Amino acid sequence: MSVPDLGQQAGIRLYESARGGEFHMSADAARELAASCDRLVERVRQARADAAALTRVSGFPDLPSGRALTAGFEAKGLEYLGMLDAFEQAALRHKAAYLAAGALFHEADAANAAALAAALAETP
């Protein structure tokens, strides 16, 4: 499933600007923003865990209309999970950018690696 761009590309551009020396902030501000991103990621992961059942729809009759309703609701559940994936990736990308802007490059590289891992591990 394709994940929509909900800020991931902006996070990548911001990270590249920070690594290129065009975007700066204090290390303290970078850590605070990174912590906010961490909290957002945790909330998104909890929402994903809570929403796992949305893709397992049942209760409609075994008729063409029931099968269509089941498929439609399952597709909406998958779409929601994809949106959560996008939010997680965007938060991780911005975390990496903020840390790089604060010249916390080891932490920024770790955050960037987490963002890449999240992009590769999209919810099926």
TrEMBL record:
<feature type="coiled-coil region">
    <location>
        <begin position="30"/>
        <end position="57"/>
    </location>
</feature>
<protein>
    <recommendedName>
        <fullName>PE family protein</fullName>
    </recommendedName>
</protein>
<keyword id="KW-0175">Coiled coil</keyword>
